[in-house]
Amino acid sequence: MSASAAGRPSLVIVGAGPRGTGLLERIAANAPELYADAGLDVHLVDPHPPGAGRVWRRAQSPLLWANSEAQDITMFTDETVDMAGPVRPGPTLHEWAAVDGRSFSDRRLLGSYLTWVYERTVAALPPGVRVHHHARRALSVGGPREGRQQVWLEGRPRPLLADLVVLTLGHLDAEPDDEQRELAAYAREHGLVHLPPDFTADSDLTALAPGEPVLVRGFGLAFVDLMVLLTEGRGGRYQDDGRGEPVYVPSGREPVLYVGSRRGVPYHSKIGYDWEGERPPLPRFLGPAEIDALLARPDGFDFRRDVWPLVAKELGFAHYHRLFTAHPERTTVPWADFQKGYAAAGDAAGAAALVAAAVPDPADRLDLDALDRPLDGVRYGSYDEAQRELRAYIEDDLARRHNPLRSQDFAVFFGLLSVYGQLVRLGDVGPWWHGFFSCLASGPPAPRLRQMLALSRAGVLRFLGAGTTVEAADGVFRARSASVPGDFVEARALVEARLPGPTVERTRDALLRGLYADGAAATAGGLLAVDPSDGRVLDRSGTPHPRRFALGPHTDARGSGAFTRPRTGGPAFRQNDATARAALAFLGALSCRTAA
Predict the structure, then answer these.
(1) Taking a C-beta distance cutoff of 8 angstroms, is the pair 535, 578 a contact?
(2) Which of 281, 34, 175 is nearest to 508 (CA)?
(3) Among 172, 223, 197, which residue's Cα sits nearest to residue 499?
(4) By C-alpha distance, which of 451, 301, 285, 312 is closest to 372?
(5) Are the beta carbons of 352 and 369 closer than 8 angstroms?
(6) Measuring CA to CA, which of 179, 260, 379, 590 is 20 to 30 A from 104?
(7) Are the beta carbons of 257 and 460 closer than 8 angstroms?
(8) Where in this chain does the record put each FAD-dependent urate hydroxylase HpyO/Asp monooxygenase CreE-like FAD/NAD(P)-binding domain (predicted)?
């Protein structure tokens, strides 16, 4: 059916969570300029509630928190976002919910905020734009490049007809890889429990028996959710020890969690004080000009060789700018002199020599390797020794991240946000960078780490250490770590505490899987390849599809989140705006041709 026969242009957005809602907000903001007084049908396709989506839906445990302070969560743009469209300000979660800005809300409250944003956005659309929510799954998309697309939905006999389709699918479920299939088969054969990578809130944890040891691989945010659901979620509670520290009181229904990972430690704590004074003037060593140069390289670029040195120098600049300007008594030269030498340093060794001479205390120097892998080369004589030492590590990390005298750590956080915003233009740069960013900038709230310490002291949580590996042998699972050589822990249950890796090849999403199988979608590092300028989906020849777009973590232009910290130029907002404007320009031209 043609656009003229249909009478009204149509846009289908597959995925109505925060990213789909953010795109719709940008459509509402840009429509007065690009699509005023024209009719348009917008179809939102998602089995979960619009706004909240799957991750932030109300139907989940109230014990699960958002991982950012309420004052740091917004769905609204400000003047720091580098975009062509207009700024449409709105409240942060903290302002909307009238909660303490430093608090960490539960996910259901954040879901209510997102629902409100969605409803406000729909109300702000021009009168001729109608929104239709289809609480179904999208199964496939087809249609000619120059004609209307057909989006087939589960349980619907006829497709939605769309002049444009935007995929805002969020995080994807995935079929298990070879290792996970082998572990699952071994578990079935020997009557063991194996829980593969999954969204922890959706996992069935009932098979993890009280008092039984459970091996857990993964020490990030998925583990924090697991820890909460298997302790407080089973009736345990915390009480104050009289000094402000929690003591865990078990219910008796908890398993014993043995947790390990490549790092062997949790992500660094959220910073627990407010920023004061001047922010580092970023970008300095990794900005648009440097990204342009990387993209112009005829032989491409290697992240470790060509990009990481610029990242490291940028983070170092942020760190030392703060140290020299806010804590000059801990330096030996004026900032102007140090800055000049730092800019002139030709390599990491030169910068390190400069720092050693100008910053006497090693605790004031930035060591990115130590921040990323603090247990490299560390060995313990027993797992009991490892428990004491790793509790001390977490206590030290908490103390430092709550000490404003170490505010150079906060400056590095701003440096990470700046770097992330620049790297989006390079497409996907591999999983290492995202893991490094998460470790430093997206760690758990301090109360969760204090609960972790309390669980460790209560014997409910045991640390395995770094370089954790798991094998299936002799009818059980065994875990070893590089931190405690020669020793191992065995259990009849294994939990992979991490999200499924983003992969189009193994995704359980039928629509994406079909596009990939047909050659209508290309991948980069396992992610959906898109044009970084506006999110158009690339086919295997590298050609952008004129009528298909994609935004979010399933693409190689993934940003650091669908919502972001205010006044940090969120790259997701910039991407949403570019896609919204491209879509409205296309649909506006189509509407004019139809009217004519």
Answers:
(1) yes
(2) 175
(3) 197
(4) 312
(5) no
(6) 260
(7) yes
(8) 12-171
- In this predicted model, what pLDDT tens digit does every residue of 25-54 receive, in sequence order? 999 999 999 997 779 999 999 999 999 999
Which residues have C-beta within 8 Å of that of residue 347, sequence separation ≥ 6?
Answer: 309
Counting as low any pLDDT under 50, the low residues of the chain are 1-5
Angle between helix 446-457 and 383-401 (nearest 10)? 160
The pLDDT, as a whole number, for residue 514 is 93
Residue that is written with structure tokens 């670029």 in the block: 301
- pLDDT for residue 2: 36
Give tens-digit pLDDT for 319-349: 999 999 999 999 999 999 999 999 999 899 9
Chain CA centroid to CA 139, Å = 25
Is 319 exposed, middle or buried (CB count within 10 Å of its CB: 0-12, 13-18, 19+)? buried
Angle CA(348)–CA(351)–CA(357) in degrees, nearest 5?
140
Give the pLDDT of residue 6.
53
Residue pointed to by tokens 């006829």: 158
Question: Residues for the chain: how many in total?
Answer: 596
H-helix or E-strand spanning residue 471: strand 469-473
pLDDT confidence of residue 593: 66
Two tokens at 198?
Answer: 């999954």
